UniProtKB/TrEMBL annotation:
Superkingdom, taxonomy of origin: Eukaryota
Gene Ontology CC terms: cytoplasm
Keywords, sorted A to Z: ATP-binding, Kinase, Nucleotide-binding, Serine/threonine-protein kinase, Transferase
Binding residues for ATP: K83
UniProt KW Cell inner membrane keyword: no
Species per Swiss-Prot/TrEMBL record: Linum tenue
Lineage, uppermost ranks: Eukaryota, Viridiplantae, Streptophyta, Embryophyta, Tracheophyta
PANTHER family: MITOGEN-ACTIVATED KINASE KINASE KINASE, MITOGEN-ACTIVATED PROTEIN KINASE KINASE 7-RELATED
Disordered: annotated segments: 19-48
Gene Ontology molecular function terms on file: ATP binding; protein serine/threonine kinase activity
Protein known as: Protein kinase domain-containing protein
Record has Nucleotide-binding as a keyword: yes
Residue ranges occupied by any Protein kinase domain in the UniProt entry: 54-315
Length: 329
């Protein structure tokens, strides 16, 4: 556990103090588009041939193993995001490029637009710019207490699960599922950041690396020594997705009390020994509770797959429920 602690502490990233603006009253989980950057990519798309064609505008954030910048393609004025990965960092540049290229054939993954390598070995990945930022930022900016209503979570979950169905079908495990690694445009949510992802040789292959963000690790990942030193990466992704969906509902990280310090002992107790699923407010629907329970099953063999979750009644509502929503609009 001590070794795992040292390797994972740098990845601790929780969103425990959301702001509370209330700006949207629609059923759509997304705000109205505020810029034309997405359309400019479609209208003026042209292959970017070198890094010299790109003008750096400003930083967007820090991804796994590298910094991400908003950039402009000088010849076309099209806007992109560029992740710069230093060869000096403990990264897997070639694998990340390969995985992102394969993954982005899904419409639910941020589109890979190319990669570049500098003489000193640094690698840059060019991808579509997602104008509304991360899912966590969007929730804070768009909903009271950063809490999404169930119908919005169902729509977000449907898109994410469709993306993960594509990843898992290609034997790709993400291994760093958290709200910050889902990016939003005006009408879609997409999977991002494959910095610690892995493509397994077979569907039955196991993972054995301590990577990812500690707060979103499944019990078998958090304390691998107690679970045979390997884990099912596909089932582990599902656990992390369950935490993300529950966090969207609660407006805070779901396994700790508000204000509780997310240190290693607190996370270990919550993840490995806490009751699952955690307490969910009484007003939550039976379908949502059941859905979260299917994700946050401590036994990975009993956890639902992403394909099974796509068929869950929370994601696929009954026809009469759709009629009620239409009337409510």
């Amino acid at each position: 556990m001590a070794i795992a602690s040292r390797k994972l502490n740098r990845h601790l990233a929780l969103h425990l103090n959301p702001t509370t603006p209330a700006t949207h009253h629609r059923f759509s989980p997304y705000p109205a588009a505020t810029s034309s950057s997405s359309s400019s990519l479609t209208t003026h798309h042209q292959e970017v041939k070198s890094l010299t064609e790109l003008e750096k505008l400003h930083p967007l954030g820090q991804g796994s193993g590298g910094a991400v910048f908003k950039v402009r393609h000088k010849p076309t004025r099209a806007i992109y995001a560029l992740k710069k990965i230093s060869s000096a960092a403990e990264t897997q540049e070639e694998e990340e490029v390969s995985i992102h290229r394969i993954a982005s054939s899904s419409p639910h993954v941020v589109k890979f637009q190319g990669s570049f390598q500098t003489p000193n070995g640094d690698v840059s990945i060019l991808m579509d710019y997602m104008e509304s930022g991360s899912l966590s930022d969007h929730a804070k900016a768009s909903y009271h207490d950063a809490r999404l209503p169930e119908h919005a979570i169902a729509d977000v979950a449907r898109q994410i699960l469709q993306g993960f169905t594509h990843l898992h079908a290609n034997n790709i495990v993400h291994r760093d599922v958290k709200p910050a690694n889902f990016l939003v445009n005006a009408n879609e949510v997409k999977i991002a950041d494959f910095g610690v992802s892995k493509r397994l040789p077979t569907r039955l292959a196991r993972c054995d690396s301590y990577v990812g963000t500690a707060a979103y690790l499944s019990p078998e990942r958090f304390d691998m020594a107690a679970h045979g030193s390997t884990y099912d990466g596909f089932a582990a992704d599902v656990w992390s997705l369950g935490l993300v969906f529950l966090e969207l509902y609660l407006g805070r990280y779901p396994l700790l009390e508000p204000g509780q310090k997310p240190d290693w002992p607190a996370l270990m107790c919550a993840i490995c020994f806490g009751e699952m699923p955690p307490k969910i407010p009484e007003e939550a629907s039976e379908e949502f509770r059941e859905f979260i329970g299917c994700c946050l099953e401590k036994d990975p063999c009993k956890r639902w797959t992403v394909q099974q979750l796509l068929g869950h009644r929370f994601i696929v509502p009954r026809p009469q429920e759709e009629e009620v929503k239409e009337i409510a609009r």
